[in-house]
Each structure stands twice: as C-alpha cells, then as structure tokens.
Sequence to fold (187 residues):
Amino acid sequence: MKNIYLTSMALTGMLIGTSISAATLTDSQIQTSAGQDFTHILNGPISDGTGATLSVTVRGDFYSQNFLSNREYFSIAIDNNTLGSQLTFDSPGAYNVIQHTKNDREFSFDFLINNALFSSIMSNQEAVVLVDFAQGVTIFSDYDFSSKVSLNYNETVSPVPVPAAIWLFGSAMMGFVGLSRRKKLQA
Fold:
C-alpha cells in the first residue's frame, strides 16, 4: 500500500511541474574564398525561449601583410542586428584562443541575446547569423579556415494541467493509507 501511495504522489508531482530544457542550434562552414562572408541559417522549432547565448568560433589568418601592427577582423550580426565589429583574437571577450601556426588563429566569442531580441529573431523559427571576415583574411590551401555558430537557449515548456481525476486518485490513495494504518493499530 505504501508503494502505491509513493507512486501516486510521484506521478502527481511529475504532472504538476513546469519543464525547462536546454536546446542548441548549430551550423558550421568552411572558408572557400578570401574575405568570405559566412551566412549561417539556424532553423529550429522553438516554443518560448529564454536565456539565449550566441557562441561564435572562427579560424583564419587574422594578420595582414604588416604582421605586427595590422590585424584582420571579423564582424557578426544576427538578423541585421550587429552584435560585434572589428573583432579579433585579442579583443576583449575572446576565449579559447589557439594559435595553430604563426598566422592561423582560432578563437571564440559569446554574445548574450536578450528575450526581446530572441523572440524577434526566432519569430519565424529561423535566425540568420552573418559572420563577415575582413577582405585580408585570405585562404590557405593547407588549412580549413572556418566559422561555426551555436545558439544556446533555455526552452520553457508550458505546464500540463492536472485533470480532476488525478486529484481524486491522490485523495483516494491518502484514504487507503489511513485505512491501512487504522487496521495496523487495531491489530
């Protein structure tokens, strides 16, 4: 009887709660021409997302011919909303910086997306992320220069309404528990 009571209470608790789960939309592309613009299209069924972060990882030769003084940059926009411009491996916020060769760098940035912007960009269940490499970010045949974006967000699932039958079932289980205790006391 005790097992039935515990099972019914667990079932009721599962039906009452609101669920929040993490979701990620990702796209990667390889550079095929110097100064390439990367257009990432992130598609996904999104109900009600909150807490979004756009992560961008790029790899390229972010040095110009004048190696020490001029750096090449990239900029990023999501649905025509600029998130960053003139970004490079030593910009504030860059992390996971890897120097593969003298000119070849890989690094990442995170951009927080507020709820209003997230709702706006995902209203048609599609986000267009433009990663624009400067013209001087040339392509070398030996390396796979690339752009990778990930949109991470928390997806809120609406609470499931609990039908009256569940409440009646729970109260009946409580009654059975009371009866079993009464029988134990009489015995």
Observations:
- The chain is about 25% helix and 40% strand.
